[in-house]
Amino acid sequence: MSATPYPAPVWQSLRACGDAVEASLARSNVLLTMGGEPTFVPVAPTGAEWQTAALGPTKLAYARRLARELVRSAFPGAVILETAGKHYPGEPLPRWTLLLQRRADHQPVWRDITRLSADLAPGHHTVADAKNFLADLADSLAIESTHSLPFAETASPTTITGFVLPLDQPTGTWITDDWTPTLGAGPLPLFPGDSPAGLRLPLEQLGEKNLRRALTAEIRDGTLTVFLPPLLLSSYLALLVAIEGSLASQKLHDVVLAGYAPPPDPKLPTVGLASDPGVLEINVAPCATWADYDRQLNQLYAAAATCGLCARKLQFNGREVGTGGGAHLVFGGPVGLLSPFFAFPALLPSTIRYFQHHPSLSFAFAGAYLGPSSQAPRIDESTYEALYELEIACAGAENFGRPQNLALFDLLFRDLLMDRSGNTHRAEISVDKLWNPFAPNGRLGLVEFRAFETHPSAAVQSATALFIRAILARLAADPFNAPFVRWAGELHDRFFLPAFVWEDLAKICADLAAHGLPFDPEWLRAPWEFRFPKLGEFALLLEPPADPENPAAEKPKPQPFTVEFRQALEAWPLLGESPNAGTVARTVDSSLDRLEARVSDATALDSGLLLVNGLPCEFRPLALSPSPSPPSTAAPAGAACGIRYRAFYFTPSLQPHIPVHAPLLLEWVDRQTLTVVAAARWHVWNPRTVDYTDRPADDTVAAARRAERWEPWTKTLGQSRFIPKIDFPPEGRHTLDLRRYPAQAR
Predict the structure, then answer these.
(1) How far apart are CA 117 and CA 39, in angstroms?
(2) I want to staple 78 with a disulfide (CB 3.0 to 4.6 A). Which of 102, 108, 393, 484 is the partner?
(3) pTM (2 decimals)?
(4) Continuous segment of H or E residues that includes residue 95
């Protein structure tokens, strides 16, 4: 697994940069909190729950263990509450979420974490334990325990599974209610379902004057589950103290706390552990500074490793990738109304413009799924008119007065920052939680940056977050108002290639340095290498031409140069609707792949050319070399091109008449003799074209699988080649798309 790539002196420089960022924000009077949503999977993930499914047999157990470990190692005195999370169309129930809550004043919320369950093992609690616990709790709250009523499942109406106690604290005193005159004394019939009993009570049968808030204690799989009603923060904290006291009095351990959390409050920092498709998502508690964020991220990664979780996957062919989930970065203020995006109306428009000007921010840190139909499409990948309309919206936002009409400010961007289907959550810059009156957690003053995937290293993840925080600090100090760039086909043709992504990242770092924020582009080397791994290279010699005016002069020595191949990016297009189990579904075409070929010295193109499956590539000059080199010996910039090809054959897919192009035959041809001087084959899978029985067991096996995909190919060395003339379309002037041309002999 990936360790930190930053030696101690480099990390000290990173910390100094962090201090400069915080100082810049302070000079601008900006209160900017930051959080994020890194995702984790088991070291050896198996089953649908770690591929595509949100729920599964082991995910909740991992979440409970991780929450327990975080309390032990990072947040002593915190409590773990299990509650309902996201609820999506087509899913019968909301997904679960664990909330790890602690007090900002460092007072303990919960003292003995062993009283809460840390796994899914069946417990040994009985219905009598639930009854006795509830009676003890009622006594400690000074209310009538006789008002508790038994309940049962509808399928077994006489089998008591737990008890309910009406409970509230509207003032400083706890109160209860007698439901017996309305509901009777017998076991209350719960609504059928799998949710905790607190969500399935027959509350609609109560009278208008009956108390509707209630606490339940039930036995689920042999484990006592205590369900808390919705309460304000002070009552919630007081009830937790009473509950822990009653559990101690009854000598009960391995209990589950479930129910409603109090409204969001800075006094109760909260880390969320949520079930998400294929991953366990962690919602980091908001941090006032990058140093706080870095500390929390390191605590999280360490606890995850202790529990057998990591932030990467190994693909069957050996490639190391992210978890497949996101690592969204979230920025806002201490509370919604104090969000810097409201206090500084130009900040959000500046951010939108800056990200649109720098496509590397959209592509350098994202996952494998890119493009218009992805989870985080760029503004200019959404709808045709988005840029035009956003120019008007940004100008309007910058002219807002104070106090602002927050709902109107939110609406300026809500119908523009979205994907092509109108989904406001699926956007590179999402304002779903800015001031959305239609969502329960929508008015938080937050802006979410979604084009980020979790990196295996906490240090790299933290440095990436500092990079974005530095950009926001620069924009707060000096708003960016340059007009949008109409990238058109250049967007993917150029910025899907790693060399041009690096070039753009370096431009951003130079801009930050010009604003007093010294962010070294080399600090982004690790995420760039992870995103664009090197596949192989040709090491060649460039014969300098003889001096025509002095034929007798000693011929200059040949100069070495390389043709380097790296993984590039590819957008997966969304296909049309197709029948699926009685409904319709839309899939993406993931059959395409893209590589980059980069010549270290552009003058080598005068004497040689690259053929891929017999077709010539068209290189684009670089302004900056992505290769690390000492400043005194800066490497020549070189030139790069893209190679787009069909890696797999799927049905359905775009262009189903086109066969698979792999393995790719890569040949460097001498222009003078038209003979092959270097060659290799690149395999998407492996040279044997056999199925792997399982994912790589460890990094050594993964590295071996990666290495065998690059196959030196001596069989064509010295052969003559005919160089066909092909045309490149406006959308891809420097990308050889093999689908456009007849197949050549390999």
Answers:
(1) 22
(2) 102
(3) 0.94
(4) none
